[in-house]
Design brief:
Layout: E1 2-13, E2 17-19, E3 22-24, E4 28-31, H1 38-50, H2 56-59, H3 72-85, E5 88-98, H4 108-119, E6 126-131, H5 137-140, E7 144-155
Helix pairs in contact: 1-3
Length: 158
């Protein structure tokens, strides 16, 4: 089974930029209720979609003060536990980060390794692609960041 995830956050001065559990050096970061890790949020939505368990907002509503500044790694661990409890395991995760700046090429492998570790997968089953929007729209003007994620899961067989 396959799930698709998408997340978008505004970028503002003075906030941190966290991708795949890593703090990224940047003068701008995500404005968010949680820690704003758009990559992990999109992966979480893809996993939840693959197993028919709604979306991240249903499990971690921004109206709940307990989720304020919540570490996305905690949300991902919850999602992975839910995945296993439903009798599934993650096969792979393919992700595209759309961001004008900072350039991610020099750190894509670091992000990939971090995500793979968090997902309990070998690096070759996690893919991180980075692209820009060629200075078009809010992404191209460095006002926002978007991540698209596809995750495949399979039933655990004994």
């Amino acid at each position: 089974m396959i799930g698709f995830g998408y997340d978008l956050h505004r970028l503002v001065d003075g906030e941190s930029l966290i991708l795949g559990g890593l703090n990224i050096e940047s003068s701008i970061g995500t404005l968010a209720h949680s820690d704003g890790d758009v990559l992990l949020h999109a992966i979480i939505d893809a996993i939840l979609g693959a197993i028919g368990e709604g979306d991240i907002g249903e499990h971690f509503p921004d109206t709940d003060s307990a989720n304020k500044n919540l570490d996305s790694k905690v949300m991902l661990a919850y999602t992975m536990d839910l995945l296993k409890s439903k009798g599934y395991e993650l096969v792979n995760s393919d992700n595209t980060i759309v961001l004008e700046k900072p350039k991610l090429s020099p750190i894509k492998e670091d992000i990939r390794s971090s995500v793979a570790k968090l997902l309990g997968l070998p690096n070759n089953r996690v893919n991180i692609k980075a692209t820009t929007n060629e200075k078009q729209d809010s992404i191209g003007k460095s006002e926002s960041i978007v991540v698209y994620s596809i995750c495949q899961v399979k039933e655990i067989t004994n």
